[in-house]
Design a protein that fits this description.
The chain is α/β, with parallel strands linked by helices. It is about 30% helix and about 25% strand. The protein has a domain at about 5-90 and about 150-195: P-loop containing nucleotide triphosphate hydrolases (Rossmann fold), CATH 3.40.50. Keywords: ATP-binding, Cytochrome c-type biogenesis, Membrane, Nucleotide-binding, Translocase, Transport.
């Protein structure tokens, strides 16, 4: 995995006439895990979506060094609140769809074993529990295999065992030189390198 550094300078976000956050800066490199905390409405999800390139900041800049020829989007994988899974498709069909769409090369069966869903690839996603669906979404991180993981409340719907599994996968990713930016309400199952607290001025 190529060594990357992601740097944000003086980011600001607005929602209508309201400033959601401003002057947010950070720099993370290989192996770093940055946790983003704060109350509801502080802009945690907004910050991740800006880094993912899904929203434009009101001010500020984001630089990825070295910059991919095809843009920052090819280096990031955003895991949001919604699982983005088709309920009528099987687990394997969902993962294969996303792998084709994003050009991933990860092994589907290996990814499912890693998240504790080995042997269930044939099941339709619509038959899964909320926790199982979340684990399929986490498996998508593995089959697409991008260096920057943007995780929005990644432990949602996970039981203690699945949280521990997520922690092991994050540790493996950072050991391989990956970067993680996670918006959280609950503590991550790994120790973050640094933490940003949004919404402090409003508290």
């Amino acid at each position: 995995m190529a060594a990357l550094r992601l740097t944000a300078e003086a980011l600001a976000a607005r929602r209508g006439d309201r400033t959601v956050f401003e002057d947010v800066s950070f720099s993370i490199g290989p192996g770093d895990v940055l946790a983003v905390t704060g109350p509801n409405g502080a802009g945690k999800s907004t910050l991740l979506r800006i880094v993912a390139g899904l929203l434009a900041p009101a001010r500020g800049s984001i630089v990825l060094d070295p910059a991919p020829d095809a843009g920052r989007g090819v280096a990031v994988h955003y895991l949001g609140h919604l699982e983005a899974l088709k309920p009528a498709f099987t687990i394997a069909e969902n993962l294969a769809f996303w792998r084709r769409l994003y050009g991933g090369a990860g092994d589907l069966d290996e990814a499912l074993e890693d998240v504790g869903l080995g042997g269930l690839a044939h099941l339709p996603v619509g038959r899964l529990s909320a926790g199982q669906k979340r684990r399929v979404a986490i498996a998508r991180l593995l089959v697409i295999d991008r260096p920057i993981w943007l995780l929005d409340e990644p432990t949602t719907a996970l039981d203690a065992a699945a949280e521990a599994t997520l922690g092991r996968l994050i540790e493996r990713h950072r050991t391989c030189g990956g970067l993680v930016l996670a918006a959280i309400h609950r503590p991550l199952p790994v120790d973050p390198t640094a933490t940003i607290v949004l919404g402090k001025a409003a508290a």
